[in-house]
Each structure stands twice: as structure tokens, then as C-alpha cells.
Amino acid sequence: MRRSIPLTLIAATFALSGSVIAPAHASAGHVTAAQTNPCRPGEGANLRGKDFTKGAQLPDNLRCADLTGAKLDGIEFVQEDMTGAILRNASLKKARFTQATLKHADMRGADFTEANLGQMHADYADLRGAILIDAEAGQAQFPYADLTGATLTRAELTQAVFTSAKLVDADLTESTPGQLKARKADFTRAKMREAKLGQANLRNATFKDADLTEVDFTQAELGGADFTGATVQDASFTQADDANLKGAKGTPQDISDFAFPTPDAADEESPTGDPDPVAAQEDKGISIGLVMVVLSAVGLALTVVAWGVSAQRRSRRNARFALMRRGAEEDITRLGEEIDQLDYEFQISGRGGMTADQDWRHAIDAYEAAKNALVMARREQELHFVARAVQDGRAALGRLRARVH
Fold first, then answer.
1. What single-letter DSSP state applies at residue 386?
2. What is the dihedral of CA 34, 118, 213, 165, to 10 degrees?
3. What separation, in Å, do the N-terminal and C-terminal C-alpha atoms of the chain show?
4. E strands within 191-246?
5. CA 102 from chain center: how many Å?
6. Is pLDDT of 278 > 70?
7. Closest CA to 178 of 163, 196, 153
8. What is the band of 268 on the pLDDT scale with cuts at 50, 70, 90?
9. C-alpha torsion 245→246→249→255, nearest 10
10. Which residues, at least 6 apart from 8, have a Cβ–Cβ distance to it below 8 Å?
11. 3-state SS assignment for residue 86
């Protein structure tokens, strides 16, 4: 006689397993919520509307701080942790945020005109309507950030990261986002006239109805990018990879065409009804010979095409490296000029002893490291070491200036 399990026992078993599993799910949900909202309302310092441009001291801990409407022009926030801070409508003109952390920060409507945002980390930040006119944001990180309606006119965005960021209706007119990393970014209806997007990674980005007049896409990666309705009048696509301008408006320049036509096969009728078997055999031999010649010609053509494509890719890669190297060399030169200028200021102000400061040595070391990295660089990836050293040098100079001034 087979034994059966009562339905009540089965139900109890499932109820018990559910009660055990439920807390795990609840815990996972709690972790996700914490990652999305790192700050609780009122958790940080309340500094709403305060003016810090006249000598008032900021607290040491600005994490989750509420600086709504605060006046912070020219203030130093170098390497500051401002995760989750609220900077809505704050005035931050010429402020320095080098290597600062503003992940999940609320910066809606904040004014960053001429601010230094180099290497700033603003992952998941809310910058809707923010003003970044003439801002210096080299290597700044904005992945998954919302910059809808933000103004980035003439902003320096070299090697900045906008992966999956939202820049709908943003204004990037005359900006310099060279070597930008903006895979899956949304530039719908963005104004980008004369922007410099050379060597940018824009794979699967969206440019629907964007104004791309005279934009420079030289050597940019554009695979999967959507240009539907975008205005590309006089935009340059020199050596750009996988550009598909279907649905775009206007006449661009320097569109590369790598499509090769497929030769049409010609149907030939062989002679029929020839009573002479010798003649038929000769015709058959001629047909086979002709096929062999055609196949050889096709094989040779394919080899030439493959070689040409390979050489073209190699040429593009070399040209891209040369362009990046020139940019890195210019960055090193500017860093050297900044060091010389600060040294001159120390000498005329009687602060020559500041050249013994640790940050001063760090800046000099970074400058030398950048030059050495440039000499050793043979590939594009190796030039990132140059950029990192230059940014480290500038950060050290920024800290030094903050203490002096």
C-alpha cells in the first residue's frame, strides 16, 4: 500500500520555505535601495543657502550635505567625498572638484561655469539643467548620470565618461569631448554644433533629432549609433567606424565607403547540337579553362581587397595613435607651463620654500612620469598612463594652490 503525503503537510512545507526565503529577498532589495539612495533625508549637514565665499568654513564631512542654493564660487573641493550631496541651484563658478566624488549627488540647476571637474566621479548623479559652460572636465566620470537640458557649451570633456548617460536636449555647442566614452548615451535633440568628437566611443549611442552641424567625428566608433532625424550638415566622418546615417538630414563630409560591389554572374549558353564530338570536347575544355581563369581572378581580387582593408585599418590605427600622441604631448606641455607659473608666483611672493612641499614634488614627479610614459608609448592604451600622470600632477598643483591661497 503506497503512502501519500497529506496536502496540508505540503502546504506547510511551502509556507515554511517561503518564510525562510523571503528575508533573503527583502535583504537584497534593501541593498539595492541603499545603493540607489545612499543618503537618508536630513542625514548630512544642513547648509542651505549659505555663502562660503567670504571666509565661512565648510564642515569636514560633506557627504549627504544639503547645499541647496549655497554660494560656493571658487571653493576647493579637491578629492572631497560629497556622495549624495544636494547642490541644487548652487553657485559653483570656478570651483575646483578635481578627483572629488559626487556619486548620486543632486546637482540640478547648479552653476559650474569655468569650474574644474577633472577626474570627478559623478556616477548616477542628477545634473538636469546644470550649467557647465567653459568647464574643465577632462577624464570626469558621468556614467548613468542624467544631464537632460544641461548646458556644456565650450566645455573641455577630453576622455570623459558618459556611458549610458542621458543628455537629452543638452547643449554641447563647441565643446571638446575628444576620446569621449559615451557608449549607449542618449543625445536625443542635443545641440552639438562644432563639437569635437574625434576618437570617441559612441557605439549604440542615440542622436535622434540632434543638431550635429559641423561636428567632427574623426576616427569615432559609431557602430549601432542611431542618427534618425539628426542634422549632419558638414559633419566630418573621416575614418569613422561603422557610421550608419540612415534617416539623417543634411550633407556630411568624408563618409568612408567600405562596401564592395559583388560582380554579377553572366549566364553563358554552351553550343548545343554539334554533331562533332571533338568540337564538343574542345568547347568543354575551353569552358573549364574559362571557369578556372575566372575563379583565379576572383581569388586574386578578394586577396587584394582583403589586403587593402587590412592596410586601411592599419593606417587608421596609426593615424589615430599619432593624433592621440599629439594631444598627450600638448597636455604635458600645459602641465609644465602650470608648474613654471606657480613656481614664478612662489618666487615673487617670497614663498620659495613651498617648492619643498610634498605636493610640489608630487607634481614634478607626475610631470616627469608623463614625459617618460609618452616616450615609451607604442599603443593607444599606453597613452592613458600619460593622461593619468598629467591629471595627478594637476591635482597636486590644485591642492598646493588651495593651501597657499
1. H
2. -10
3. 93
4. none
5. 17
6. no
7. 196
8. very low
9. 30
10. none
11. strand
